[in-house]
Each structure stands twice: as structure tokens, then as C-alpha cells.
Write a structure and sequence with these properties.
The chain is built from ten helices and 19 strands. It is an alpha+beta fold. Strands 11, 12, 13, 14, 15, 16, 17, 18 and 19 form a nine-stranded mixed β-sheet that branches. The longest helix has 20 residues. The chain is globular.
Length: about 525
């Protein structure tokens, strides 16, 4: 902490300012004392940003989302005055060193300390993503080692899952180069940054914590960026128990990375970091919880080739990054917004919005223990052959809508009113609406493997003229049930012929008119 300056206010609302905790591109962070004597952190937004209408709108939305982030993830959200000139928000003050400070003073973490950090940060990301937020600047400075569990802080540059690219000026990229995912260097402002970028940053943070260096460390920011784009990570010195989870998180293709819940399941031993081949049997069905996606070597080479082509721009890109990356705290990391209201636990947090159309949907965090799962009413579960380790598909004898109330994810949404959850709420007046571009998708997680007889799409006027309906056992291997280039909207019924799967997806590739895809309801029976 540094002392207050003559230009700093003495009070802010009901809080007496004590000192400066940090400075960033968004503004100043102060340590303050509340009327009851407790300490809080206050983030005062930079006046120039406060007068920007786009920023003001985004900031208000961010504050509302911050209220939903569970307090075990970050500093608890306490208060905000959005009408103050300039606006500010108040969060819990966390009295603990940053991970960066600890590594600088004591060297790399070892044993249980490193494992606890990996689990703690993955838990925090699970809760953060479950609230619909992408952090975008996860790095050692933004991880505080508070008593109990690490806290991920500094949401001053966090973004909602919705239309991230529209909330970022094209001439500004936030983040520290060494912790940035390859897709962050693409320069394509229309391509939203997804939660997968935070998972990549997690891998970099844990590698740094365990070895004292970042996994793509170069002699300069441009050299580091080049290694991120083209080279495998250097994980020598990282414990074997963490090497594979970190390697999976550092996949070049965001679709090949685990989600935060999957990452947590891997770390807790509930899921493998690498797919395990299973001998095929006639009656076998894939396990309800997927292994991590594995792309073909050809696909990986193509992805790397595309990324490598961006290196011609690296010098310019990194110059812009360095110019906008001076967000190091002044003698301590600055806390940031959190929620005081209850939130889903890390293992069950599900977002109603997810990354761009090319991404695979989030999957469940942990497998359902076999032998302890109850069978829903109206369901007949076929007996399992002793040779089949995977669960059999359930039979929906009651004919109920399996998608009703289930977790729904989508490539985008027009705004918060048209969230993916609207398409599975049973209300034929509410709807999911996408952004105005192709392609877009909406996926429903049925929670288990089911035999599917029919999929019903109830379109609004802004329907798909070209789309397909897919089914998947694990969210990464898809089988197309129906494909058309002459969609007419209204109610469309697709016969599934007892196809089996856990995930059902509508993947639209052409819209009618200039609006987005708009779906009242998706029903699965």
C-alpha cells in the first residue's frame, strides 16, 4: 500500500480512505475503513472512462454480474455507487500476498501447497464462469493467497460471456502477454474471447507457481507471444500429478481445453486428463462425463499453421499489448467485485451463455457415481452387461420433455433478455435470441445418456433457413440427426429414431433476414 496523495479524496460515501492499494487501466483502488471499523477496498473508475456511454453501460452490467460471483472465488462484493462522479464499487479487503510476491520471495511452491493452489484457482474459475463472467487477465498478480483458499481478483477488466468482442475497443487488448491464450493474438475483434482463455491462463499460472517461470517464457514479449503461438509448453520441474492437467489447459485450440468444471474434476481425480480408449461392445454406451476433446493431428497442424501466420503481426500486436498492460498493483494486488448472494457450488455452476460458435459446449464437472444414482420416475434403465463399463442409455417411457429446465448453453445472445435458458423454460413466449451473425448454436445437456425419439424446435419469426440438429454422448463427438437448407420456421419436429446421447444441439448456419436466430423452445423426447 502507498500513502494517499493530495489529489485523493478523504472520504467516499460512508468510507474513510486510508491509502492506495493499486492503479490499473480502469482506475484507482483504495484501502478504506467503514463505519464499523472494518477495512474494504474501493475501486474508483477513471473519469475518462466514466464519461464513455459504452463503458458506463458495460460497467453497470458487470456490477450486477459481480453480485452473483460466490465469495469463495474472490473478494466479496459489498457496495457500489454507480451514480457517483466517477462511479465506484466496494469489495472485501483481502489481507494476503499475491502469488507473484510469494514466488519472488520464497521461490516455487511444492507438494500440497502447489496442489491446493491448482484446485483453489480452478474452483474460483468454476464459480466465476458459472456467473457468466470471463476474467481475461488471470495472472499471479491477480491471485491472492488468503487464509483458507486462494482468491482470484481484479475484475476491472472482466467481461460477460455475452458479446465480449463488442465490449472491447478494437485498439485495446487487455492481459499480460505470458498468460494470454493463442486466440487472443488473432486480431479479429469480431471473434469473442471465451472462457477457454481463462483456462489457458490457469495453466500458465500453475506452471509459473510450480517452476518459477512461465511455460512459454521468451526474451521479450514478442518472443513469448511467438512461443505461445507455435511451441509446446515447457513444463519441466512441474510435478507429474499436475503436468497433464496443465498440458491439457495449454492446448493451442480452445476447443481442446477442458472447461473449468472439467479441470476441477480432473484435479480431484474424478476425470482423466487424457482420453482412455475403451474396447467396443455391442451394448456399450459412452460414459456420461466426457474425456477431454482430442483433435486429429491434421486438425492441430492446420490450427497451428493459421496461428503461425499471425506472427507477421506479432511485433505490432505486442507493442499494443505492452502499452496497455501496465496494471501492476502498487505494493499489493487490488481486490475486486464479488457477490454476497448465494451462488451455485463449483461442481454445479452452469452458464446460460458460452463462447463463440466454433467452441464446444461446457460439460458437467464430475461423473455421477455408478451404483448410487437414482432412476427418475417414469424411466426404465436397461440392465448392464458385466463387460460394459459405461452407462446404458435411459428410456423415456413417460414421453416427458427431457430438455425442460436442463442446463442450456449457446454461442451468443442478443442481450441478457434472450438468454439460452429461455429455450428450455417451458414458456413459449420467452426465447433465446443470438447475435446477428452465422453460425450460431444452442445446446442442451440432458444430464445422462437417453434414447431420443424426437426433437422439437419452436421458432420465432427470426428462424434458421439452414441448420442441423446433432446429438452427442459427451459434447465433443456429434452425430447429425437432421439437416436442412429449407427451414420454414414455426414448429419443426425431427424424428430421432432412438438415437442415444446426452447433449442435443441446434447448429444454425443461415438465418432468415438480418436478425439473429430466435428459438422459443427446444424440446427433446
Amino acid at each position: 500500500m502507498s500513502p494517499l496523495r493530495s489529489t485523493d479524496p478523504e472520504r467516499m460515501g460512508d468510507y474513510l480512505l486510508v491509502g492506495r492499494l493499486g492503479r490499473g487501466g480502469m482506475g484507482l483502488v483504495y484501502l478504506a475503513e467503514s463505519d464499523d471499523g472494518s477495512y474494504v477496498a474501493i475501486k474508483l473508475i477513471h473519469p475518462d472512462l466514466a464519461t464513455d456511454a459504452e463503458f458506463a453501460r458495460r460497467f453497470r452490467g458487470e456490477v450486477e454480474r459481480a453480485r452473483r460471483v460466490p465469495s469463495f472465488c474472490t473478494a466479496e462484493f459489498l457496495d457500489a455507487d454507480l451514480d457517483h462522479d466517477p462511479p465506484y464499487l466496494v469489495v472485501e479487503y483481502i489481507d494476503g500476498p499475491s502469488l507473484d510476491e510469494v514466488i519472488a520471495e520464497r521461490g516455487p511452491l511444492r507438494g500440497g501447497s502447489l496442489q491446493s493452489l491448482a484446485v483453489g484457482v480452478a474452483t474460483a474459475l468454476t464459480g466465476i464462469h458459472g456467473a457468466g463472467i470471463i476474467h481475461r487477465d488471470l495472472k499471479p498478480d491477480n491471485v491472492l493467497l488468503a487464509p483458507g483458499s486462494p482468491k482470484v481478483i481484479d475484475f476491472g477488466i472482466a467481461r460477460s460471456f455475452e458479446a465480449t468482442s463488442q465490449h472491447t475497443r478494437t485498439d485495446v487488448m487487455v492481459g499480460t502477454v505470458a498468460y494470454m491464450a493463442p486466440e487472443r493474438f488473432s486480431g479479429k475483434s469480431e471473434r469473442p474471447v471465451t472462457a477457454a482463455a481463462d483456462v489457458f491462463a490457469w495453466g500458465c499460472v500453475i506452471a509459473f507457481a510450480g517452476t518459477g517461470r512461465t511455460p512459454f517464457q521468451g526474451d521479450s514479449p514478442s518472443a513469448t507471444a511467438a512461443r505461445i503461438l507455435t511451441q509446446p509448453p515447457q513444463l519441466d520441474g512441474l510435478p507429474a500429478s499436475l503436468r497433464e492437467p496443465v498440458r491439457a489447459a495449454l492446448a493451442k485450440d480452445p476447443a481442446d481445453r477442458p472447461t473449468a468444471p472439467e479441470l476441477l474434476a480432473i484435479l480431484l481425480g474424478n476425470q482423466s486428463a487424457t482420453p482412455t480408449p475403451t474396447p467396443p461392445t455391442v451394448d456399450q454406451r459412452p460414459a456420461a462425463v466426457p474425456d477431454l476433446p482430442v483433435r486429429s493431428a491434421r486438425h492441430r497442424r492446420a490450427a497451428l499453421g493459421g496461428l503461425a501466420a499471425l506472427l507477421v503481426l506479432t511485433g505490432v500486436t505486442v507493442a499494443g499489448l505492452v502499452a496497455n498492460a501496465d496494471d501492476r498493483p502498487e505494493a499489493g494486488a487490488a481486490p475486486s467485485p464479488s457477490a454476497g448472494s448465494p451462488s451455485p457450488s463449483p461442481s454445479s455452476a452452469v452458464s446460460a451463455q458460452t463462447p463463440a460458435p466454433e467452441q464446444t459446449p461446457p460439460r458437467s464437472a464430475a461423473p455421477t457415481p455408478t451404483g448410487s444414482r437414482s432412476t427418475p420416475a417414469g424411466v426404465i434403465e436397461p440392465s448392464r452387461p458385466t463387460t460394459s463399463p459405461g452407462p446404458r442409455a435411459l428410456v423415456n417411457t413417460s414421453g416427458r420433455n427431457l430438455a425442460l429446465g436442463r442446463p442450456a448453453t449457446a454461442s451468443s445472445m442478443e442481450d441478457a433478455r434472450w438468454a439460452a435458458a429461455n429455450a428450455v423454460d417451458g414458456d413459449h413466449m420467452s426465447r433465446w435470441g443470438s447475435q446477428f451473425s452465422d453460425p450460431q448454436w444452442l445446446t442442451v445437456d440432458l444430464g445422462a445418456q437417453w434414447r431420443i425419439k424426437e426433437v422439437v424446435l419452436r421458432w420465432e419469426l427470426a428462424h434458421a433457413t439452414e441448420y442441423r440438429v446433432d446429438v452427442s454422448p459427451d459434447g465433443r463427438r456429434w452425430t447429425t440427426l437432421h439437416r436442412t437448407s429449407s427451414g420454414r420456421g414455426g414448429v419443426e419436429r425431427i424424428t430421432a429414431d432412438d438415437a442415444t446421447g446426452r447433449y442435443v444441439r441446434m447448429y444454425g448456419t443461415r438465418r432468415v433476414g438480418g436478425y439473429g436466430f430466435s428459438l422459443y423452445e427446444i424440446e427433446v423426447r
